[in-house]
Design brief:
Function: Exhibits a very high intrinsic GTPase hydrolysis rate. Involved in the addition of a carboxymethylaminomethyl (cmnm) group at the wobble position (U34) of certain tRNAs, forming tRNA-cmnm(5)s(2)U34.
GO biological process, one term: tRNA wobble uridine modification
Shape: flat
Strand content: 15-25%
Largest sheet: 7 strands, mixed
Bound molecules: guanosine-5'-diphosphate, zinc ion
Helix content: 40-55%
CATH topology of the largest domain: Rossmann fold
Oligomer: single chain
Binding site for Mg(2+): 236, 257
InterPro entries: G_TrmE, GTP-bd, GTP-bd_TrmE_N, GTPase_MnmE, MnmE_dom2, MnmE_helical, P-loop_NTPase, Small_GTP-bd
Radius of gyration: 29 Å
CATH class of the largest domain: Alpha Beta
Number of domains: 3
Keywords: Cytoplasm, GTP-binding, Hydrolase, Magnesium, Metal-binding, Nucleotide-binding, Potassium, tRNA processing
Strand order of the largest sheet: 3-4-5-6-2-1-7
CATH superfamily of the largest domain: P-loop containing nucleotide triphosphate hydrolases
CATH architecture of the largest domain: 3-Layer(aba) Sandwich
Length: 460
Amino acid sequence: MYFDTIAAVATAPGEAGIGIVRISGEKALEIVDKIFRTKKERKLSDFQERRLTYGYIVEPDTGKKIDEVLAVYMKAPYTYTKEDIVEINCHGGMIPVRRILEIVLENGARLAEPGEFTKRAFLNGRIDLSQAEAVIDLIRAKTDSSFDVSFNQLEGGLSKEINEIREILLRMLANIEASIDFPEEDIETMTYEGLLDEGNNVLKRIEKLLDTVYTGKILREGLKTVILGKPNVGKSSLMNAILRENRAIVTDIPGTTRDIIEEYVNIKGIPLKIIDTAGIRETEDVVERIGVERAKSLLEEADLVIVLFDVSKELTEEDMEIARLVKNKKVVVLTNKIDLPPVVSREEIEKILPGKKIIETSIIKGEGLEVLEDSLKEMFFAGEIKIKDNTIVTNARHKSLLLKAKKNIEEAIESIEMGMPIDCIEVDVKDCWENLGQITGDTVTEDIIDKIFEEFCIGK
Ligand code: GDP
Ligand code: ZN
């Protein structure tokens, strides 16, 4: 496959220690030889490859120095793109990187499209599609755990599992072909039994991957957690206590609206996206401020609700209303202010919210918070989650392909059980194989590939 030579700034815009301009393609070294000189007037190609070389970017005609840099030449195929790559490390900041990029473009490179370096790594066969998608997930990861999952995917964790399942499907197809070629009775019975075993095996493995989707979603987006309670029960105090102990992971969260504050925290490895009205003065209570309807829709989306009651005061109609709102949700109940003389008993709370986990807290004294954090973890991940060695599906595209593949294999199994003609079964097995192949990019179409890489940033 022939590709032209592309270039882009690989580092983030703005002021920084260094900036990197990356060039990939056959002409990478030739271009840099025109514009790079050391103090002793030597070119980059005068040096050993993969050696970071100190020098200047200069204007080819005048020899005028543009910036002081370190440049390195990495020879194909052992590079990010599997092509020749030159990277120029210059001073960080808008001007140096822009000037160097301009001069690189003037001397024969084309500005890279978003994700084009990674796209080449895929098209040149260094990584498959799910690995390429992992690259963007790594860059976007907001939590340690979602980073770990993406890293596993980049290392080929998902690809390996998909490829193994597809091998079984290929074996099934081969058996089907064989029995079409030799359609004697006894071969056919054997074929059907074998197909059924293998079909069930495929189904089991696809289901196992699909089982990870919910975990994947939580790791990626955070567990949507709503804090609910009437005014003055201690919601803001809880939010602050959680934030204090579990450093917010990101601040630039899209979707933060003025009436709902979302904060990401990391509790015992679980990313929580806490939705609260903290930060809004005066009326802070969700129900009161944004109305019952709005609270209901917030609750609908919630993976978890933390409900607070103030046990130093009699329960009110408002408490009852809140209890009614959450009775069908995953709930942790905090009976707060246990440091004060109690007025409400645990039994009373159990009565209005039967079967829910109740934790006694004094947020102001930090009591019960550790228990809260432990129970959150228990509720969502029974047992230890070993993200690092687990293949977890986080990508919506993968999920929908797995669902299609599941349907295909289920239909194939049904046809086998019903003793349908073998070529009917063949179609479903083939579709299953193809749908799974779209995950790794083996059977994917060009427009899907384009769409995936469009989401990348320039320079990656
Ligand atoms: P919100 O309206 O639900 O957000 O409640 P706040 O977090 O603003 O707390 C209301 C008041 O209750 C504040 O004065 C807090 O200091 C106090 N408070 C919160 N938690 C406790 C607690 O566990 N014990 C006691 N005694 N006071 C608390
Ligand atoms: Zn508050």
